[in-house]
């Protein structure tokens, strides 16, 4: 995408910070690249995006982001191949999901070309920040929040859309142990669970802390009414393999429609793996674990890619999953990352060259 | 509270902005007083609060408030009586509720004396900003948010607590028409509905906009599972009068435990009004409206005080409420505001002299 129709004004950083970064020891999302894209919404429309040095944002104390939670975000990655060519994975899907979130949170939708052209211009400028190391990538964080002011509980009249990037290593370190949650919930029927809205994450922290204190890494959310249906994990959709069938729950207004999830489903079909999209109940899971037919569980998401779950806890009992030689998780992870890093054919047309 | 144990550092504004304010035409929460209280949480503890001129806040683009919705707030008012004495209403309850919200959102609890002494010092300094006009007051907005940085979805390690104030007129103008919501929801069982968390408000804006397009001011939320139980309105708890009994729903993890609500319940008992705290179903409401036993409905909250509802809509039908001479709403509103503005005895010990 080089014939940029949009005029994106660029203010370059005076001295790059890149020399201060240890690319061999990257944590997740804690070091930020030189530049960011900023776009302001005022008087009913979006102003042209600008690229500026990564820098603090100044806001009035009554800006509605501080009070009424109008904030949404996306999570993407930029991948570099052997020849230093840069790729994104299904970026338009992130842009469209951002706008789905925006609508639900009464925020203005962003023109797709602002997102796509702004992002590609930013990546071209900061391309040296995209790690080459295996397992690392440039994590991309597009986000939008209410900058308009006032203590009246109503939508703001001004918003900021920003894209910042962070060279990052892997999201989880080590084996993932999850706890099936029966008391707390992530989302309501008719609520905002399907939006990538800030408040959905803050609400998960306390229950997750309680689970961490018990020795788990992550909570598996169930529906708030019966707590019988497995829904999703912190920032991942959940897959379960019972026998040789790969199962994931259907999306709904309580669940984020993950791009990794839907890609994994398509890859699995392409690999000849039997898939089912249907409700997974906790009882089914426990029963399968007891019978030995529960072969695998894994989380899927942009940050965590495909993260195999080693153990799930439910009502004071831990159920360990077997360690398989040729697991679906490792096959599917290899296929999706090979596409992302341009190491294999992409029959699906998902890879996007910057 | 004059023997301040805490040392609160004060930086005064050079030139007050008060002359620019038209105290006879105040809207709600859109003009801000000269100073604000700021308190920072770092390295595991709260630093001493400071009073500074009301000014912009500068934050890193990766501050977690922008991404993961760790934000909570309170809403209070300062009232001035005839002799220019200043009063708060049950302020410690706001402080405690802030800490209940903080816990649920995995944010640090604030020491009560920071809240109480910080607030009284701020009000003493900005006392000229407290309106004297009938129906006006100084709206007080204590809020806390995550200022710590990083794109990892986990609690921040730094927070800011701020109190800003805004001289304000009434929240609603004119008659209030509400719509009983059956599709969208405000909160989940096991969710964060009982916390005064930013995300709870953003999630209400879109359904409220849809209701406004149909000619209503406000949505009445029902439970997300059956949509049969009346829960609360935007920033108000709901009361219903059927026959001569005043009814309000029980609090739960889906509903904010409103200070106005519980005060109204006590005042009503003191007035000899029969009260019930129990589930109110939509069918009961519609039936009572049809039979003519539904006498009143009103919302109760700090911002809206007691706001009589003129009409409720349910499934394409509008039900008008009668206009009563000596309504419970007007009696209760008079009693509570007389206490707040120091115009009457306070047998409950709720008034707090600054
Ligand atoms: C709640 C939630 N579920 C699932 C996902 C996975 O979605 P995706 O694969 O699009 O990254 C994410 C992360 O983005 C998430 O935040
Ligand atoms: C969701 C919600 N319910 C009820 C209330 C009323 O609570 P209070 O009377 O303490 O102001 C408020 C406002 O504070 C609110 O935000």
UniProtKB/TrEMBL annotation, chains A, B:
Source taxon at top rank: Bacteria
Assigned EC number: 2.6.1.42
Top-rank EC class of the record's enzyme: transferase
Keywords from the named record: Aminotransferase, Transferase
Record has Transferase as a keyword: yes
The protein's name: Branched-chain amino acid aminotransferase
Organism listed in the record: Meishania litoralis
Lineage per the UniProt record: Bacteria, Pseudomonadati, Bacteroidota, Flavobacteriia, Flavobacteriales
